[in-house]
Amino acid sequence: MSTFAQAPKLAASGDQLYCPLSTIPIVTSFSIQNPSSSPINAVFIQISEGYDAQHDRLYLTGNHQNISSNWNQTTAKLQLNISPGTTLEQITEAVSNIYFESTNNSFRGERVFSITTGQANYLASTGHYYEYVSDLGISWEDAKIAAAQRTYNGLQGYLATLVSAEEAQLSGEQADGAGWIGGTDKNAEGVWKWVTGPEGLNGGLVFWYGGSSGYSPNYANWNINQPDNAHGGPGEDYLHITDPSVGNRGAWNDLRVDGDPPGVYHPKGYIVEYGGMPGDPEIDISASTRIYAAEITETSATYICGPNMVSISAEANAGTVYWFTAASGGTPIHEGTNYNPTVNSTTDFYVSAGPKGCNESQREKITVTYFEPITVINNNVKLTICTVDGSQETSSTFDLEEAIPMISSDSSYYFEFYTSQADAESETNMLDETLLNISTSSEVFVKVSNQSPCFEIVRLSLEVSSSNLPQNFIHTLSTCDNDENQDGLHNFDLSEARGTILNALPADQNYSISFYSNSENALNEINEITNEANFINETPGRQELFVRIENESTNGCYAIGPYVELVVREMPEFDLPEFGQFCSMQPSYDIIPIDTDETYNYAWYDEEGNLISNNRELTVTSPGWYSVFATSSEGCTSETKMIEIIDSGPAALTWENVRVTATGDTYEISIIDPELLGIGDYEFILNTPTGQYQNDGNFYNVLPGTHTLYINDKNGCGISSLELFLFGIPEFFTPNGDGYNDRWNIKGIPNQENFLLSIYDRYGKLLIRLDQQSNGWNGRYLGKLMPADDYWFHLNLKDGTSYKGHFSLIRSTR
């Protein structure tokens, strides 16, 4: 068991608020005891935490016999050199006169001071001691052994394990030199562990994974682009505080176990840490104090809507809050966490915190932003909506945006609608639609805002009104469908209906009237009929229009209902025959309209324009032009229709006016003089009076036989007919027994006609007599063949008509 002299016991107090750019003693009280009465040669006072090497320093004030001081800027340590014979009281007085100062006007955070009589640096936050040991060229392994062999006032030494920024600064930036510390990744490349001290127990503490782009699970202080394992393989596996000339002062790099001599990567020593090991004694050989800067921890930058008093605040971790109008200089305008100035423009305030009378602390800006206030015409607005007269609907739809002009005319404002004032103020449960359907009167709240945070809440009352017009009120506009289409659609002037409706309303109010095609449009005020002077109904025949009446005096709806009916009356429809005629056997002609409505009233006029009848049918006794129009029971008058009545009669058909011309084996039939037929308009046909007539009386290629010629009067005055007998007299025959043309006979005589046909030779000798029972002459006389020659015939009909002629008998010669 090692033994050591009992070190002096130190005690100090001091937890002071510091004013930047000022000086302050490091202790408020200090005491020292020396149980062993061993000489005290030095006292070391160090800024062990928060040190700012550019601005901070410690110094001894006053004259102290037998005591001198020197300041080490690198280690932030003030050393009191004590001559023999110096009393504890003198040491106490000297320590009490050590001051701290900083030239940093942005001083922040804290400074922790350690006081000890030994060389090792003391860190109050860990309670450990740290010592740099110079040993040029020592390997990491040897440094680990050497550190473990060192003790400090009974505390076991080990290669330092720097697990916090405070340790890293004290043993790195503020160390007397560069050297080894207790980290390695020799067991697993890229897995860096603290393997010494308390952290090295139980397998070590991992503080880094990977290379230069790796990460730390707790704390690491690698230099730039470190660790880089520059030599690869089993190479740079040991942790080293980099030479101050390389990269960031006090940062780490990885080296091989022996370093890289010569140069800046050649080890120059190692850092020993004392404290925290099992079996270490409790010692009180050091003391620590603290100063700190008061800081503003929270501010409430705010805004104001229009000139007014505003509440702003600032919180600090300590001291008094001071308010200024400038970023630096000047005197405070207020003290305290809360300030209530009156503001009429955007204003910057500055706050700082510190001890009483300290105006040098870092200031924070608090801006009170000024916005023009939201101005509204009225904070209580009412919308009135009507139910539709005669409707079964139990609810009404409000267009909330109709209230906007009553609230404000500023186009830059936004309007949001809520069902409660609380929701409007908190901007929760905003209505998604501005069309709101309700069954009873209600209210909503309108939040009026712009791009600023200012707003106003307006109460919007929604009232459901019912109609006050007379029950079953309706105004009918009617017209005849007298345009060219006659499709049940017609133009209307709605101004007449407007006047009638206004006359039915109370005279002490002002009203506006608008027309709509249906109740939904009227309720929602959409698709208003704007072409009132020339509106064309959309439903053929009949259409109702919904009227919305607004009370301009109260800015609300007065009534909605189907107060206008549009009626398009049908025009009378009838036809007349194309023309009429007198037949020679008739004394008059009846003109009867076609497809008529029996309720029409008619007016008939002659061609001189004289009214001659109001009856549906007109009987005329003379030809000419007649006109008529019809009027319906609704007063609609048709267009005028006209009919011509002409003279006509049946055809006078006689034999004398018919020409029959033989053309070989056929005949032509024609009318000699059509004018002799009569005054009618005639058409002609042979044999079939119900067939297709032709307009002229000429027929060609008519076969022999009995035919009937029919002549029809196109005007309906009758059909005339004439029977015609067309005989076919062969010019020759060839009775040579070949079965073709072996007999001669007259063709076309009806079977029932009695006739006598006599045949003679050229000398007048009677050869044979034939009648209707005969089938013709076979060219024989008394059984003998007659020679080829011309022969004559004589035909006698029963009516006494006779015909004569000749024909040839031809025999072939071989």
Automatic annotation (TrEMBL):
Q: Which domain of life is it from?
A: Bacteria
Query: What are the residue boundaries of the C-type lectin domain, all occurrences included?
Result: 125-254
For this protein, the record's InterPro entries field holds:
C-type_lectin-like, C-type_lectin-like/link_sf, CTDL_fold, CTLD_bac, Ig_7, T9SS_type_B
- Listed CDD domains: CLECT_VCBS (cd03603)
Cited NCBIfam families: Bac_Flav_CTERM
Q: What is this protein called?
A: T9SS type B sorting domain-containing protein
